[in-house]
Amino acid sequence: MQRYPETPSQTGGPYVHIGLAPSQAGFEIFASNVGNQLTNSQTRGDRICIEGRVFDGSGEPLRDVLIEIWQANADGKYAHPGDLQDKDLDAHFRGWGRTGADFDTGLYRFDTIKPGEVVGRQGVLQAPHINLWVVARGINIGLHTRLYFGDEVAANAQDPVLNSIEWVSRRRTLLAQRTVLDDQVVYQFDIHLQGERETVFFDI
Fold first, then answer.
1. What's the pTM value of the predicted model, to 2 decimals?
2. What is residue 97's predicted lDDT score, i.e. its pLDDT?
3. Which residues pair with 103 in a beta bridge?
4. Contact residues for 93 (Cβ-Cβ < 8 A; gap 6+)
5. Would strands 118-119 and 107-113 be described as parallel, antiparallel, or unpaired?
């Protein structure tokens, strides 16, 4: 029997945008592009913006990084058949978005709503959070992390996933800080791939 060697791994590289976010790379391939706008005028919930940069180990912002987010709606329910909670779906909320960082500044942005609390394993409530997936040149396997809201102090204190992180200083790497810019609520969330401020990533 003929055996084949393992296929070499390959990072996202500079071509990740052509395949996953072609409009940002200047290619109009798809009739409908997945973007960073998760809401419309009829979406329920408090409108927020998520904004930040992804930094490498030397502290430089990545400009070719691509980020996906997925989250529950304002009632704490995911638009997925695996979510069996007895809560209402929101037909006007996709719950999933994708964007690349700005090629000049490294800044990424999502326009979404603040999610509600989700019932986790064994019926334990999880604090409002957003799941993120990060790919870029130099990353062989996409990195999974979570964004929690710094102003949800009581809910964060009870969250089973956040509290599974042993060191309190490491938990802080998952907290987005609330600001208001031009009358819009913005949560600042920077991601550090390495170094003293390295963001907590999850093995999923």
1. 0.88
2. 95
3. none
4. 38, 39, 43, 44, 45, 73, 74, 79, 113
5. unpaired
